[in-house]
Amino acid sequence: MRKLENEKIRELGNVGISKLQKLLEVIVFLLSLRSVKHH
């Protein structure tokens, strides 16, 4: 039973990490767009 809980927590952690990575990609993309506009 405890093992299953740990698996769920690990899955949630992985999902959170992937979402953070997507967010970072979007931020980098927006920053690059902004720098292009300035030039």
Distance between the termini: 58 Å
Coarse morphology: rod-shaped
- Specify the number of helices: 1
Proportion of helical residues: over 70%
Q: Give the mean pLDDT.
A: 92
Class by SSE composition: mainly alpha
User: Over the alpha carbons, how many angstroms does the gyration radius reach?
Assistant: 17 Å
β-strand percent reads under 5%
Could you give the count of β-strands?
0
Q: What count of structural domains?
A: 1
Instruction: Give the assembly state of these chains.
Output: single chain
Write the H/E string, N to C.
H
Low-pLDDT residue intervals, each spanning 5 or more residues: none
Q: Sketch the major β-sheet.
A: none
Provide a concise account of the structure shown.
With about 40 residues, the chain is mostly helical.
Structure overview:
- This protein has 39 residues and is mainly alpha-helical.
- It has one domain (1-39).
- 95% of the residues lie in helices and 0% in strands.
- It has one helix at residues 2-38.
- The longest helix is centred in the middle third of the chain and has 37 residues, at 2-38.
- The mean pLDDT is 92.
SSE topology sketch:
Layout: H1 2-38
Features:
single chain, mainly alpha, about 40 residues
